[in-house]
Amino acid sequence: MPENTAPLVGIVMGSDSDWPKIKAAASALDEFGVTYEVRVMSAHRTPEVVRQYATMAAARGLKVIVAAAGGAAHLAGVIASHTILPVIGIPVPTELSGGLDSLLSIVQMPGDVPVATVGLGGGGPRNAGLLAVQILSLGNIGLQEKLTAFKHKLSEKVVEKDAKLQETLRGEKK
Ligand code: RP5
User: Fold this and answer.
1) Which residue's C-alpha comes closest to atom 3 of ligand 1?
2) For the whole model, what pTM was predicted?
3) Which helix (H) or strand (E) is 89 found in, with range?
4) Could you tell which of 15, 94, 100 is best to mutate to test the pocket of ligand 1, judged by most ligand atoms within 8 Å of the CB?
5) Where are the alpha helices (DSSP H) in the chain?
6) SS3 at position 117
7) Rounded-to-10 torsion of CA 99, 112, 38, 1
8) What is the C-alpha radius of gyration for the chain, rounded to an integer number of angstroms?
9) CB 94 within 8 A of CB 102
10) Residue 70 CA, ligand 1 centroid: distance in Å
11) How many Cβ atoms sit within 10 Å of the Cβ of residue 93?
């Protein structure tokens, strides 16, 4: 992460045990040079810290909050209730059906309090970081250019994979 610059994204998680499972979100921000901070706070264990963090986030200059939690995962929703910033929720995998508890706790918000929820495991945490970059890019031409180049690379990779597969299939027919 670029040093000595104010964070634009707040990555928060319910426990330090979540970090290894969600740090791909931070890596995505690193790829695009987006500044961020990482904090542990719990909707249930430190509710006052969460309230203060969410309430002050916009005034501190944060533009997007990424909130990860597992189980009865109320962190993202509680943060969304205290801020007008966009909140992206990352459901953390658990032992209950792979984390269905986390997913439903985050995605099933009541009307009027949106949380943009990414997928459970797999590319979910990375997508949270990328979605934060896309939100920030609305007011940042540099990020728009980087995202456009990123999309081109994605499609190039698939075209290459297709060409390789065609070659392999031709070889198998011989
Ligand atoms: C949630 O409880 C956390 O987000 C974490 O996924 C889960 C377990 O937390 P620890 O018991 O590891 O602190 O609040």
Assistant:
1) 14
2) 0.94
3) strand 87-92
4) 15
5) 19-22, 24-31, 47-56, 75-82, 100-107, 124-137, 141-173
6) strand
7) 110
8) 18
9) yes
10) 6
11) 19
**CA pair distance 26, 9, nearest whole angstrom:** 9
Nearest Cα neighbor of 136 from 7, 3, 41 is: 7
CA 93 to chain centre: 14
Distance, CA of 129 to CA of 88 (rounded, Å): 9
- pLDDT, one tens digit per residue, over 134-153 is 999 999 999 999 999 999 99
The Cα-based distances of 124 to 23, 29, 87 in angstroms read 11, 14, 14
Q: CA-CA distance, 154 to 10, in Å (whole number)?
A: 27
For 91-102, what is each residue's pLDDT tens digit? 999 999 999 999
Give the integer Cα–Cα distance in Å for 47 and 67.
14
Q: How far apart are CA 103 and CA 109, in angstroms?
A: 11
